[in-house]
Design brief:
- With 74 residues, the chain is mainly α.
- It has a domain of 46 residues.
- Helices cover 54% and strands 0% of the residues.
- The protein is built from 3 helices and no strands.
- Helix 2 runs antiparallel to helix 3.
- The longest helix is centred in the last third of the chain and has 20 residues.
- The chain is globular.
Length: 74
């Protein structure tokens, strides 16, 4: 089965409206934690997701988590 489904790099349901030139890995740890919680909620709210959709949402969640692990407290 082929799905014509795409997931934005920074989904608005997690990040809202972002400024031009936004770089996830340059954000403060507090915002990263906030977005990580929203990403977890986005994964939890999926009903019967396709593998592609689940992988995309988990991918952004994991990317945020990696940014948290790599960040330095402000």
């Amino acid at each position: 089965m082929v799905h014509d489904w795409s997931f934005p790099e920074y989904p608005p349901e997690i990040f809202g409206k972002l400024p031009e030139g936004f770089v996830l890995e340059e954000q403060q740890i507090e915002m990263l934690c906030f977005w990580h919680r929203k990403a977890l909620e986005a994964v939890d709210q999926l009903e019967n997701p396709s593998d592609e959709e689940l992988n995309a949402r988990c991918g952004i969640k994991n990317r945020i988590f990696q940014a948290i692990l790599s960040s330095r407290p402000s």
